Amino acid sequence: MGVVVALSKVADGSMYDRTQPEDQKVIENRATWLHSHGFSLDDATRIYITYGDDKTYKKYLEVNATDMGKGMRANDIEWADALVTTIPGQVLFLPVADCIATTFYDEARGVLMLSHLGRHSLEVNGAVESVRYLQTHYDSKPEDIQVWLSASISKDAYPITKLDGKGMKEVIHEQLAKAGIVPEHIIEDAADTGTNPEYFSHSEFLKGNKPSDGCHAMMAVIA
Asked: Selecting from 3.90.870.10, 3.60.140.10, 3.30.70.270, 3.40.50.2000, what CATH number does the domain 3-222 have?
């Protein structure tokens, strides 16, 4: 089977409101965007991201048909840093602003993973850990895994201090190489969310450099 991966833009509306997780306009935006790809809210499962000193940023959950619809209208799902499914037609959905939404797909084993890879997760080798999870739980081989990277913020605007001031994309490519991912198997949206008006940027909004706050989203589904 194949896979469908897509990334929304500002024109599609915000896909998450940090202050109002049940905002009706956001839910409408999600429904409209998913419908444009042939899916509904009840086909999707959202990755619910949270932060805190007690978080490892390496929490990965396997989901199935019973989880479809969860997180799409409220925060009614367990938090995680990534979701994994083997169910065709189950859409994994991840809103982001500056962090990298990353899809991993192993067609040979029919497994799909959508990971949130931002500063916190990259500081703990999140890309490597995501691949290792697929290796450990699904016997995936790195050379069989395809990867999609969303747009993200540039090194100039958001250097990762704990990683020698490198940018997110620089770090994630290093980690994917370390994990054994074939470079030719990586599809990347190289846009800079900090300067590109087609994407949201939370950090640049806080600096007064973006007119509105919000999140675009990546969706991934075995189809």
From this structure: 3.60.140.10
Tokens of 85: 């499914």
Beta bridge partners of 92: 45, 220
Other beta carbons less than 10 A from residue 216's beta carbon = 27
**1 bridge partner residues:** none
Which DSSP helix (H) or strand (E) runs through 26?
helix 24-36
User: What's the CA gap between 104 and 176, in Å, rounded?
Assistant: 11
Predicted structure pTM score: 0.97
Give the chain's length: 223
Domain-wise residue ranges, the chain = 3-222
Pick the closest to residue 93 from 221, 204, 2, 219 (CA basis): 219
Report whether 92 contacts 114 (CB < 8 A).
yes
Using only C-alpha atoms, the chain has a radius of gyration, in whole angstroms, of 16
pLDDT in tens, 160-204: 999 999 999 999 999 999 999 999 999 999 999 999 999 999 999
Rounded CA-CA distance 3/75 in Å is 26
CA distance 64 to 177: 30
Q: Give pLDDT tens digits for 49-63.
A: 999 888 899 999 999
